[in-house]
Amino acid sequence: MDKVQSTVILLVEFHTGNKIPQIGLGTYQMRGPDCTHAVKVAIEQGYRHIDTASIYQNEADIAKALKELYALKKITREELFITSKIGPSEQGYDKAITACNSILKKLETPYLDLLVIHWPGVSGVAPSSAKNAEVRVETWRALEDLKKEGKVKDIGVSNFLIHHLEHLLKHSETKPVLNQFEIHPFCFNKELIEYCAKNNIIVEAYSSLARNEDILTKNKYLEDLAKKYKKTIAQVALKWGLQNNFVILPKSKTERFISDNIHLFDFELNEDEVKKITALNQDYHTCWDPSTIKH
After folding, report:
1. What DSSP string describes 84-153?
2. Within a domain: 170
3. Active-site residue set
4. In this structure, how many other beta carbons lie within 10 angstroms of the beta carbon of residue 168?
5. What is the pLDDT of residues 224-282, one digit of tens each?
6. What is the CATH number of the domain that holds 30?
7. Which range marks the domain in which residue 110 is found?
8. Separation of alpha carbons 132 and 77, rounded Å
């Protein structure tokens, strides 16, 4: 096969004019051959957006998959969108610069499409300390300079709440193109989502399947919708995310699920169903909760 499967995925435009595919492959907790295989399968299925982070420690595994696909001329770097993140221990101007250079080297790429501050807190700093906000601004300045150098095309944040964003916007030259945080039918921060929309910051949903916990996989209403549309519960939950205009990052290392998670365009939830799914919200976090970072 000369080219990988072409699946049409909507591109969402940043305020900079660059665009991000609305569905990406999350790679959290994927390492080694499992990670390499999942990336190859995802690209074959039509994914063009790979999400990683320095704390995932899987850049070399992703690079191996991409190198094989490049060699087979199945994909080019320019056709891909690659995101990585600066970890809590890498915050601060100099540390962030060093971290980015390390990420680029491990991924074997000359640039990132998006570089994100992974967490509003800083390693070794108390969650209640105002120093977190000070160091975040230094980190953001490093990201701005990395963008000016061409090492990253766009810069964003992850797990930032409104007060984190307000402080950053007040103390920086540029605003994030994107805020990545936990969103699924049982974790839906309406105020934060509306704040991002008002400020032209794209919302990206991680843990968009609630890590396959029972709260999602055994929900009766989602189950009924899945039967109605002849889809899986996961596909219904992901479709809800797309219809809310989120960028979504479903994660799986299983070929069937990688395929299912991208084939979401042959059905549509009606307005009432979208509202009822949204009403399932319980502020149920499956991951870290950024409200612990006070400044």
Report:
1. EEE-GGG-SHHHHHHHHHHHHHHHT-S-EEEEEE--SS-TTS-TT-THHHHHHHHHHHHHHHHHHHTSEE
2. yes
3. 56
4. 21
5. 999 999 999 999 999 999 999 999 999 999 999 999 999 999 999 999 999 999 999 99
6. 3.20.20.100
7. 11-283
8. 35
